[in-house]
Amino acid sequence: MQSPREPVVVGRGRLGRSLSGALDCPLLPGRETVAVPPGCLCLVAVPDPALAETAARLRGEGAAIVHVSGAHGLDVLDAAARRGHPVGAFHPLRSFPAPLGPEAFQGILFGIDASDAMLLAELESLGHRLGGWTRRIPSGDRVRYHAAATLAGPLLVALAAQAAAVLGEVGFSRDEALDALLPFAAGTVDNLRALRLPGALIGPVRRGDPDTVARHVAAVSGDVAAAYRALTRTAVGLAEEAGLDEATARLLRERVSG
Description:
Layout: E1 7-10, H1 14-23, E2 27-28, E3 41-44, H2 48-57, E4 64-67, H3 78-82, E5 87-92, E6 109-114, H4 117-129, E7 133-136, H5 142-152, H6 154-168, H7 174-199, H8 210-219, H9 222-241, H10 246-255
Parallel strand pairs: 1-2, 1-3, 3-4, 4-5, 6-7
Antiparallel strand pairs: 5-6
Helix pairs in contact: 6-7, 8-10, 9-10
């Protein structure tokens, strides 16, 4: 049986440096690197727009070429595959606002895929080595997978900005608004972890209070109102799962229609 390939990271950005540090493996520059060690597992950690070009120029006898993008499938590595390299995807589902230590990978999902079973098994093992868990996300599913990640991460930041802006209308500075909202948001994440869905849902929708929802709708406008209406419709569905009666659910939906 062939020994697992040793990892090498190409790309010195935040994620590249985090992976290299956690794996205690070589870190090569993304822009200049052409040759990688023979037989390595080459993790290409460059920005998505540079991914195809970077992978196309990498050379290394027997090397597997693996990108760490969430949005792309294996087709972005077609040039490497045509040269006979096994290709794969290995995406850590978390944000890296700065280079982070090995603990950043503990317990997270790695969305993986590979052109052959041997490489897939190696990527599964690599995810476990980093302290996480893996799931195969085929090329056709990766855009939806990445959209889900964007909803739970970057767009959560945008939602916090909207909430802070509403508090700004009643006199809070942005920093004061964040100081007020972050403990509440952290508690919500704790509830999600402990109670799951739909158990973590609280607030006027869960308790069946259409009058308060209507007052909220009247108090906000523009993109904030659109977000409030859309998210409330989702919350009503969760509340029904948790036992909210049909008549109250209908009243809540009426308050956010339009």
